[in-house]
Amino acid sequence: MILLVLQIAAIATVAIYLVRWRVGLRRRNAQSWDSLIARLRHDWSARELSDQFLWKEGLSVTPDDTWTRLQGPHGLWAMYQNAKVMLELADYATRNSDHVDRVLLETLRSDAMQIRVCALMALAQYAFSHANEGVRVNAFRAASMYTGMAARMTQLLQEHAGVRIPDFVAAM
Questions:
Q1: CA-CA-CA-CA torsion for 33, 165, 52, 87, nearest 10 degrees?
Q2: How far is Cα 143 from Cα 162, in angstroms, rounded to an integer?
Q3: Can you tell me the distance from the alpha carbon of 172 to that of 161, in angstroms, rounded to the nearest whole number?
Q4: How many CB atoms neighbour CB 156 within 10 A?
Q5: Considering only CA atoms, which of 88, 89, 73 is closest in space to residue 143?
Q6: Residue 93 and residue 127: Cα distance in Å, rounded?
Q7: Helix/strand/coil (H, E, C) string of 58-125?
Q8: Which terminus has fewer CB within 10 Å in the chain: N or C?
Q9: For residue 141, what are the contacts with CB-CB under 8 A and spacing of at least 6?
Q10: CA angle at residue 44 from 29 to 169, to 5 degrees?
Q11: Spatial separation of the C-alpha atoms in residues 85 and 22, rounded to whole Å
């Protein structure tokens, strides 16, 4: 009897997971470019981290300055969330264009995942030890990758959707 209940529970769990996964795919495929841009965090900007933030990779500040300009964990969390949205923007470009540079898209995906990992590591370290050197270094790495990803996303937009650049620049 218990085995039968466990089997039914396992099948129900898998069925619920598959339905939620399918609904998520439909929702993702129904998103427009404008709805994705609107999901970027507007309450924080990485403009202070680099002189030419959206046009050139790299930071023009030290790890200590980066932490200050990130506004601590607030900026890390914003980078974490924006990296997910930029990942979805890259997926949107893949779905809706046949001649997008696949290497650039894979680089954007890789960057987004690395930013999310670095930001989570820095946030976890911050939760346990506040703003020590390790937190600042991880925040600097995440910010450096974030500026690179933003520059590559701008490059993608220049090549394939030039009319979308003002929306992206305003959102960043």
A1: 20
A2: 25
A3: 17
A4: 23
A5: 73
A6: 36
A7: CCCCCHHHHHHHCCCHHHHHHHHHHHHHHHHHHHHHHHHCCCCCHHHHHHHHHHHHHHHHHHHHHHHH
A8: N
A9: 118
A10: 60
A11: 19
For 131, the token pair is: 């703003």
Residue 51 neighbours by CB under 8 Å, 6+ apart? 60
Residue showing tokens 């600042």:
136
pLDDT tens for each residue of 9-25: 999 999 999 999 999 88
First to last CA, the chain: 57
Per-residue model confidence as pLDDT tens digits over 25-36: 888 777 887 788
Question: CA-CA distance, 113 to 49, in Å (whole number)?
Answer: 20
* C-alpha Rg value of the chain to the nearest Å: 19
How far, in Å, CA of 105 to CA of 111, rounded?
10
Question: Quick check: 147 and 69 in contact, CB under 8 A?
Answer: no
At residue 49, does pLDDT exceed 90? no
Tokens encoding 21: 């996964």
Q: Which token pair is 115?
A: 């930013």
Token reading at 68: 């200050």
